[in-house]
Design goal:
With 96 residues, the chain is mainly α. It is built from one helix and no strands. 96% of the residues lie in helices and 0% in strands.
Length: 96
Amino acid sequence: MPDELNARVERLEESERRAWAAIEALSDKQQKLDEVLVVIAEAHAKLAEAQLETERRFQETEKRFQQTDARSRQIDERIDKLVSAIGELIRRQNPS
């Protein structure tokens, strides 16, 4: 009977060692996961900042395109007036 008791105690002690080894391994993995989550959170924050900056630049570019279109229309109007004035000048110089 004492041998059975000793054998059982040894099995329990071995089970306890394995349990503590598993707990330690899980603890290490949890710590690594926590570190990875920090990296992911930082990357997410940087991505969000980059997206905001990209959106701001798109809006700025759109505004510049609108300004360029407005200037192009003004130039077209001025060219039309100039061509019309040149045509009128030619007609006045050559009254046929």
